[in-house]
Amino acid sequence: MSIGAFQILGIALTVALILCAGLLGSRRVRSADDFINASGRCGCWVVVGSIMGSLVSGQATVGTAQLAFRYGLSAIWFTFGCAIGCAILGLGYAAPLCRRGSLTLMEVVATEYGKSAETIGSLFTSIGIFLSVIAQILSSVALLISVFSIGTLPAALLAASVMALYVVTGGSLGTGLGGIVKLILLYVSSIAACIVATYVGGSLMPALSDTLVGQPLGALLNIDGSEALRARFFNPVARGINTDVGSVLSLTLGIVSTQTYAQAIWSAKSDSVARKAAMIAALLTPPIGLACTFVGLFMRTRCLTTEEATALLAMGSTLPESTLILSSSAQVFPMFIIHFMPPLLSGITLGTLLITNVAGGAGLSLGTATILARDLYFRFSSRAFSGPEKLRRTRIILLLVLGAAALTAAFVPQAIINDFGFLSMGLRSAGVFLPISCALFLPGRIHPRLALAAILCGPIAVLLAKILGLSLDPLFCGMGTAAICMLAGLRRGKPAL
Cys-Cys crosslink for 10: which of 62, 320, 348, 488, Cβ 3.0 to 4.6 Å? Predict the structure, then answer.
């Protein structure tokens, strides 16, 4: 579909504003350390911007609205899990991480458990974060297709290119400055979206009841009455306690286990600044998720996916003329903005949503590139690199990460965005959370070989549980396996050096 001039103007102004904030950070990047963590000189709100620039991303906005469209209130757990993770990061981990003075989580692990643990942990952590980068590109693809009606591959490549422009010059400081601007715009857009949805749709429960109960779509979704409606769309654990609780736990532990958020902590100029910034991020995250959940529920009363429309027509049903048809449920939030918000505000919100996806993918790809560069590439290279050469090669690795994520995303256009996010957090948590926690709080108490076993076996257990389709959430399998290994190591006492 085509969009109007005011919408294009709003998109252009918003994207230009946030990109300028990111480019402003490039003026202070003179070394690889400046690029990675701003050499530890950022104030509170820049750190908040760095955390939320990656955290409140396509998964928290487009992905949450998509999940709410399918399962209602259970979509809130992504942002609530993120908030709990930020609170734990601030209260328990910010000060110990700052005292370590490292640049990657795996450097902390290497100091305690050896280089082999660092190498294996870096590989699994990179894979985990890479899955989140794919999720951000999928969110951007849904938005770009909705706005410009382009193909999946061009949309994925365009999204990755804008992410590269956002982060490749300014690095950590650029993402922090851009994150502040994005945060302000995102709050304004979320409030506006809730107001518009309330004004247009009224009370959600009656609207959903009229749309689904006793209607062909309700029969298609196995909703045969008001009780089934409440169980599907107004139940916080609609996908099952195992699934939803597992998702919250994976997010909570994944925040602590992710290089991107550790980099934000290390960029702070003091322990107290890092702690305060993490707590502010914890408070600011849930309202955005609630707004996106509300939009997803509203859109359930107004649109169908192509698959649903095809099934209803095959049943002999007639589609109402006002029904919007979405090629994918990932288009729920973008299509709401285009069809139900005033033009200029719609453009500003679309621009904010685009840059939200971009900032999230950019920050996560920076974390991936940092791990690959510092923990793997520079370590195993036979050359000694100068500071400028390290910076250049880190940027090249970042571009390669984004390119690979774009090509991968182009082949999974129908994926549930937050499924990638939950699996990503699960892989990171299973392999990193217990080893990094013991390295910080129980130094010298875990035998390195058993810590190495936890780092290796935890993520493998997550992947096997996912592949085999076990009823138990994959995270529980991974964390249980890692915990057994770490406890076995703890019984050995402090190893001899």
Answer: 348
Closest by CA position to 157, among listed 424, 353, 399: 399
Q: How far is C-alpha 199 from the geometric centre of its chain's CA atoms?
A: 30
Alpha helices in 114-170 (DSSP H): 115-148, 152-167
Residue 254: name the closest of 164, 161, 131 by CA. 131
Is 486 part of a structural domain of the chain?
no
SS3 string, 87-126, reads HHHHHHHHHHHHHHCCCCHHHHHHHHHCHHHHHHHHHHHH
Q: Which residue in this structure is represented by tokens 């934000």?
A: 264
- For residue 179, give the nearest of 367, 18, 357, 377 by alpha carbon: 18
User: DSSP character for 56?
Assistant: S
Distance of CA 298 to the CA centre of its chain: 23
Angstrom distance (rounded) from CA 445 to CA 435 = 11
What's the half-sphere exposure (Cβ side, CA atoms, 13 Å) at 186?
A: 33
Residue 326, helix vs strand vs coil = strand
Residue linked to tokens 């945060």: 183
pLDDT reported for residue 239: 85
Asked whether the beta carbons of 78 and 288 are under 8 A apart, the reply is: no
| Number of domains the chain is built from | 1
The angle formed by the CA atoms of residues 335, 339 and 343, to the nearest 5 degrees, is: 115
Give the CATH number of the domain where residue 66 resides. 1.20.1730.10
The amino acid sitting at 367 is G
Q: Is residue 438 part of a domain?
A: no
Low-confidence ranges of the chain (pLDDT < 50): 31-32, 34-38, 170-171, 493, 495-497
Find, among 107, 56, 40, 54, the residue nearest to 292 by Cα: 56
454 belongs to a structural domain: no
Rg of the chain taking only CA atoms, in angstroms? 22
Asked whether the whole model's pTM tops 0.70, one would answer yes
pLDDT in tens, 140-158: 887 888 777 788 888 888 8
Contact 231, 238 (CB under 8 A): yes
DSSP label at residue 257: T
The rounded distance, in Å, linking the Cα atoms of 332 and 136 is 15
Note down the domain range covering 254. Answer: 5-423
